[in-house]
Amino acid sequence: MKSNHDVGSSPDSVRARRDEGKPGRAHPGRRGTMTVMTAPASSPPPSGSTPPARRVSRRIGSIAESATLAVDAKAKALKAAGRPVIGFGAGEPDFATPDPIVEAAVQAARDPKNHRYTPAAGLPELREAIAAKTARDSGLVVAAGQVLVTNGGKQAVYQAFATLLDPGDEVLLPAPFWTTYPEAIALAGGVTVQVDTDESSGFLVSVDQLEAARTPCTKALLFCSPSNPTGAVYPREQVEAIGRWAVEHGIWVVTDEIYEHLVYGGATFSSMPVVVPELADTCVVVNGVAKTYAMTGWRVGWMIGPADVIKAATNLQSHLTSNVANVSQRAALAAVSGDLSAVEMMRAAFDRRRQTMVSMLNEIPGVVCAEPLGAFYAYPSVKALLGREIRGRRPATSAELAELVLEEAEVAVVPGEAFGTPGYFRLSYALGDDDLVEGVQRLGKLLSEAH
Ligand code: PMP
């Protein structure tokens, strides 16, 4: 990843690099090993050299292209060129938005009151409905004034970090992580401290790991369950333990609940500020309609938090994007005010595909796939295949292997490099059953040639 300027794995290398980027800062007392990614914006130019004239600022020039969108674009381009590519890259449901929601938008488009600016924080009735939906679904009780309607969950993530972080503040980020988080943290001047997990813990971070990564500069923890990309779902006791640890140390939690309804195999979703109510004053919840109602293109999400934080974030949004498109807000209002029957139908389809995909992946020699219990992704390890010969090539990394898979099997997957953990593939199972089977068969056929 372009933004990962630092891949030091020993505490010494971590400190040396942080000190380069943060002159005059005290050494924090971090124990254990983890990766620190400093915001390039805050790094001075190398001593003795004059910075070249810049057309694009350091801050924006350092942002990496979204790897997941890049894989998707490459797959779509090959498809447009007539190649029969099967794409496992996209992070979106393959279903259409349910009719009643679309109908509400059609009506809204005809009403001139929706042709005008509305309050930056969102339509008052939508903020009310989101508060009511949150109490219904996760049990978190908030006032409408604590809800800010954003252009997708993505804007909520950016605004949460922009509102909470000062330059140099550290954010603990369990890896594998969704690609957007470190970019949002860096753009806000923050420092990502990556805390690695793997299949041995079911990709769940422990309090001990977080505590080892904590320093006096730690401002926040990013928590995502169900997880993109691993599909891991934290059990309630672990959510509680992490929440209590955060309260004890005055660490903010930004918790991404966008996959709250997509859980399988007996797993249940637990919202951290519900399980640990003491967190209410230092917690921001990110959510949206994209995954639950198959509404990725409508761009409606929200952030929920303490009134002062939401007010500050609203001020930011009032200068950035103003109100979310009213037609989309009206569609979201219909979505969150309605029942959950459509998501239950999608959930059942995803569960079926999940089981098919995981068992097929585990039959491929060299591929090991832990069972994902949420979201719509499988995250198999392909480490055993790296360095082996396939069709005259010897891919050394999961990124190289993913490229070979796209060229030779015409199957698009996102390599683990995009999520901070090389050695894995992310495959979305939000695609039709036939394509899914065909795609994993092609993958298996190619990878079985490894020697
Ligand atoms: N959080 C996570 C974990 C996601 O996977 C996504 C979408 N890929 C989002 C937030 C943002 O979704 P959107 O902006 O479409 O609402």
Explain what the structure shows.
This protein is α/β, with parallel strands linked by helices. The chain has three domains: 1-45 and 57-64 and 154-284, Type I PLP-dependent aspartate aminotransferase-like (Major domain) (Aspartate Aminotransferase, domain 2), CATH 3.40.640.10; 67-91 and 342-447, Aspartate Aminotransferase, domain 1; 112-150 and 289-338, Type I PLP-dependent aspartate aminotransferase-like (Major domain) (Aspartate Aminotransferase, domain 2, 3-Layer(aba) Sandwich). Helix content is 39%, strand content 12%. The protein contains 15 helices and 13 strands. It has an eight-stranded mixed sheet, with helices on both faces. A three-stranded antiparallel sheet has the order 10-13-12. Strand 4 (170-175), helix 7 (180-187) and strand 5 (191-196) form a beta-alpha-beta unit. Helix 6 (152-164) runs parallel beside helix 7 and helix 13 (341-362) runs parallel beside helix 15. The chain is globular. The two termini are 29 Å apart. Residues 1-28 and 40-44 have low confidence and may be disordered. 4'-deoxy-4'-aminopyridoxal-5'-phosphate binds next to helix 6.
